[in-house]
Design goal:
single chain; alpha+beta; 13 helices; rod-shaped
Length: 413
């Protein structure tokens, strides 16, 4: 229930008190910068001057005009939080502090850099100060206030018994764009895997590295969230660990952590596969070049010797000398190729991947069919030989014959 509102255009101060006798004081500061909608800078981007670099910074710089008056007004409204307000004034980095117990009890305060939307550079500071019965939040983006005032979030806040539980509920709301961003990342990672499976081009390595940078971005945002979760546990101990809000956010963080580890393993696997394929292609090319060099070395040597400017040369004056020389070159080239092929050093370099795979498959099929045909013949031969040579079978046949004789005689009688 909203029981008070102070401030004008510069700052909005709302005080919300809940049935469990704890209150939430929300400070909505005036925005001093425009919305940023740029994407994350690429690896190969060239920042030509300092102005373009500042325009692409992920964290906006707050102007000094009006900020001092806002902080002064906030300190007058919340004197017990004056030191915290002074520390977080203009801060655009993550910082979480667990203060020693005071007359208000354990304190946790600091700043959490959060991503408001799917745009990677849309990152805003979320300042918080929490004790057992009071929660103070300060932010500049109105979208956070809208999300915190949704019906489902309001019901969950009213069900909280303490202010730290409410902070954990808000933390779960803050992680909403995080889940959406990871879903988009998973889609892009799946497309990359399909492209790599269908056609592994050289340019895919740059795409893999870009996906790695995206994952580092989400990991960088996730680390301070885990730190805040641990800080609340450290400060409020068993009183917060048995609450429903703590258990829910714990399971949510474990799920996100599992996803990040899984995505990291997938990207490492893609990098390893691309590295292995690149090495295989390099070895393939070097092997092919080596084989061609060895095959044509005799022709090169003989051509060099035959072209020297000396007199007389063998078969230089005869009409059949050139024919003999060409035949000798062709013969020794074929001999070297056959020798390499029998050694098994050519592989499929000079045959072709498609034809070699078909040839290998046809050979394996013929071999399997041959084994399948020979197996029944061998089994029948073994059974026939065992029946002929086995003494047990012989004695069994004799006993059957003797048992059949009286039966024949009785029938005759």
């Amino acid at each position: 229930m909203e029981i008070g509102q102070a401030g004008g255009k510069a700052m909005i101060h709302r005080v919300l008190r809940y049935p469990a006798q704890w209150d939430w004081q929300m400070l909505q500061l005036e925005r001093q910068h425009a919305e940023l909608g740029q994407k994350l800078p690429k690896r190969k981007d060239n920042r030509k001057n300092n102005e373009s670099f500042l325009a692409a910074r992920p964290y906006p710089v707050q102007a000094a005009s009006g900020a001092d008056s806002q902080m002064l007004e906030a300190k007058l409204l919340l004197p017990e939080c004056a030191s915290w307000l002074e520390e977080c004034n203009g801060r655009t980095t993550n910082q979480i502090t667990v203060a020693p117990a005071t007359e208000l009890g354990p304190l946790v305060h600091g700043t959490l850099m959060i991503q408001i939307s799917e745009v990677h550079t849309d990152i805003q500071p979320f300042h918080f100060w929490v004790c057992g019965r009071r929660l103070v939040t300060m932010h500049e983006d109105m979208r956070l206030a809208i999300r915190f005032q949704a019906d489902d979030v309001t019901n969950r806040l009213e069900a909280c018994d303490t202010a730290p539980e409410a902070l954990l509920v808000m933390l779960g709301v803050i992680l909403g764009p995080f889940h959406e961003g990871l879903d988009g990342f998973e889609t892009r990672l799946g497309e990359l895997e399909n492209n790599m499976r269908s056609a592994n081009r050289t340019g895919l390595m740059d795409v893999i590295i870009e996906r790695r940078y995206d994952l580092l971005h989400w990991s960088h945002l996730f680390t301070p969230v885990r730190e805040l979760h641990g800080s609340v546990k450290e400060a409020f101990l068993d009183g917060i660990m048995e609450s429903e809000a703590y258990k829910r956010i714990t399971h949510k963080l474990e799920r996100i952590d599992t996803l990040l580890k899984h995505y990291s393993l997938e990207i490492d696997t893609l990098i390893s596969m691309d590295d292995a394929i690149s090495n295989f292609r390099g070895n393939d090319i070097m092997k092919t070049l080596t084989i061609f060099t060895v095959i044509f070395t005799p022709a090169t040597v003989i051509s060099a010797l035959w072209g020297v400017n000396l007199q007389p040369l063998p078969w230089d004056k005869t009409w059949w000398g050139f024919t003999i020389l060409c035949a000798f070159i062709i013969g020794i080239t074929v001999f070297i190729y056959v020798w390499l092929w029998k050694k098994g050093w050519t592989g499929d370099m000079l045959i072709g991947r498609g034809s070699s795979s078909k040839l290998t498959a046809s050979r394996s099929d013929r071999h399997s069919r041959k084994k399948y045909k020979e197996a029944p013949e061998e089994d029948s031969g073994r059974r026939y030989s065992s029946e002929r040579t086995s003494p047990a079978n012989t004695s069994t046949q004799e006993q059957a014959a003797q048992a059949a004789k009286p039966l024949t005689r009785s029938r005759r009688l």
